[in-house]
Design a protein that fits this description.
Layout lengths: L4 E6 L4 H16 L3 E6 L24 H7 L5 H10 L3 E5 H6 L12 E3 L1 H8 L4 E4 L1
Parallel strand pairs: 1-2, 1-5, 2-3, 3-4
Helix pairs in contact: 1-3
Organism: Salinibacillus xinjiangensis
InterPro entries: DsrE2-like, DsrEFH-like
Protein name: Sulfur reduction protein DsrE
């Protein structure tokens, strides 16, 4: 997938959402694609220093937690680190941060803070755009 660009919008903040976002991003990056994720609204939880450690499961799906452990599925914290090691661009939405009164230091190291225009600039020539 060299010369491929993948733009992902993460607007939801549950555990299933995090696995979708980071699995797709990591798979694309492992295939030599350039990957960027724009985290907005509840999606900011996926890169929040504390928030990503206790993301909610959908009601009635709590049994998946044990399945994740038995299948040795990496934690979200590990997936965030992996994505960063693979040079996935992590963009936190400035407007949402302002609305929620959050500062950059509330998030994992290495993120970029930008508005919708920042993401549009990245995504304007993307081969794939996904929203979770």
């Amino acid at each position: 997938m060299a010369n491929t660009k993948v733009a992902i919008i993460a607007a939801n903040g549950g555990l299933f959402d995090a696995y979708k976002v980071f699995n797709i991003a990591s798979a694309a990056a492992a295939s030599d694609a350039e990957v960027g994720i724009f985290f907005t609204f509840e999606g900011l939880n996926l890169i929040h220093k504390e928030g990503h450690k206790s993301l909610p499961l959908p009601e009635g799906k709590e049994h998946f937690q044990e399945g994740f452990k038995q299948a040795n599925v990496p934690s979200i914290e590990e997936l965030v680190s992996l994505a960063q090691e693979m040079n996935v661009k992590l963009i936190a939405c400035q407007m949402t941060m302002d609305v929620m009164n959050l500062e950059k230091d509330a998030f994992v190291e290495g993120i970029e803070v930008g508005g919708a225009a920042t993401f549009i600039e990245f995504a304007k020539d993307a081969n794939m755009t996904l929203t979770f």
